[in-house]
Amino acid sequence: MLWNNLSSEAIGTSNVLDDENANKGECKLGFDLSTPDLVICSGSPKIPNRPYEESPELLKHSSLELSFENGITEESKMEGHNNASISSKEDFGSSEASFELLPPAQCEENNEECDELMKAKRALEILKKENECKSKECEEALRSLRELQNELMRKSMHVGSLAFAVEGQVKEKSKWFASLRDMARKLKIMKMDQIKLLEEAEAYKKHAADMNDMGCIIQSKIDEQVEQHEDLKIRFNEGAKERKELYNKIQELKGNIRVFCRCRPLNSEEIAEGASMAFDFEGSKDGELRVKSSVAFKKNFKFDSVFSPEASQADVFEDTSTFATSVLDGYNACIFAYGQTGTGKTFTMEGTNENRGVNFRTLEELFRVIDERKNQIRYEISVSVLEVYNEQIRDLLLPSSQPGAAAKR
């Protein structure tokens, strides 16, 4: 028996009703799994077409349907086609062209056809069971497929979220790896620096040991120098004391009171009048001063030092500078100029800005000696400016000095 999945549109009625196409009682059954009770037959059973000769076009576009409403049972083998109904309808689906052929009262078939029908019945039952099993399997497979699809969708979403999270972690780890590489590079540099520092530290330790030895040597030298310094200091103090005594002894031998004579040169008026110098300075180096006369020398004067008109301010100060040292040694000293008005006292003591006198030069000498002795002795200096005029003492630092007023220091 040949089974085909046929439809009414695929089988022409003209072929079904043609005697030559009846295949001599052989059946061609077609069925649909969705409607297993519907069987499309062609060629068998043989249906006489004499009552329909009047409408050949209808037969040309018609098909047959064989329906087993009550199924195929064991009794149907004997009854043949008693329970079958045959209907025909036009392919176009028109209600006017539809009609039904009732089964014949008696259908005589041979045993071969009954066997084929039984085989078809058993095959149909088997196919129905297989169809049901396959349908259940398909439904189960479809349900499993949907569940798997849903699970796959959930897993896909979960995988997507995990992928996003993993991507973020990968980026974060990339940053950490970059930072780690940078830190590793810095650590390597620091290790190299540490090695260098350790080497330098070892070198410094060696130098420190050498420095300690050198320090001990230097300390011993310092101790020796300190001892020598103390000895030299003692000797210096003794020498300074001796120098002070000898120096001032010399000053005493020269005279505690010394008188210097300085003669000024002739002024312009005296030169205009034709006056001449009344003194002879040939013995000035020995401190002698002679008064000239028209006849002969009448009188000689003896001084500690005589300065001719050609003597400078520096020459005058050279003989008086020794008193500055005596003052710093603790002795009292006094320098003053005495003479008539116009003899040059102020010039000798004060001088000019360009040619300083004894006062300014003595102060400079005092500060020079103080600077030399600053590491041994500390000095304090006070100044008072007095004027003796007409046997009266005036303090020039007071705003209005009166005779006999106390000197301001």
UniProtKB/TrEMBL annotation:
PROSITE patterns to which the protein is assigned, alphabetical: KINESIN_MOTOR_2
Pfam families for this protein: Microtub_bd
PANTHER family named among the record's database cross-references: KINESIN-LIKE PROTEIN KIN-14Q, KINESIN-LIKE PROTEIN KLP-3
GO (cellular component) term, any one: microtubule cytoskeleton
UniProt cross-references to SUPFAM superfamilies, sorted A to Z: P-loop containing nucleoside triphosphate hydrolases
Name used for this protein in its record: Kinesin motor domain-containing protein
Coiled-coil intervals, chain numbering: 107-158
Binding-site residues for ATP, renumbered to this chain: 339-346
Keyword field contains Coiled coil: yes
Keywords from the UniProt entry: ATP-binding, Coiled coil, Motor protein, Nucleotide-binding
GO term, biological process aspect, one: microtubule-based movement
Family, as annotated: Belongs to the TRAFAC class myosin-kinesin ATPase superfamily. Kinesin family.
GO molecular function: ATP binding; microtubule binding; microtubule motor activity
InterPro entries to which the protein is assigned, alphabetical: Kinesin-like_fam, Kinesin_motor_dom, Kinesin_motor_dom_sf, P-loop_NTPase, Vik1/Cik1_MT-bd
Domain Kinesin motor: 256-409
Matches recorded under SMART domains: KISc
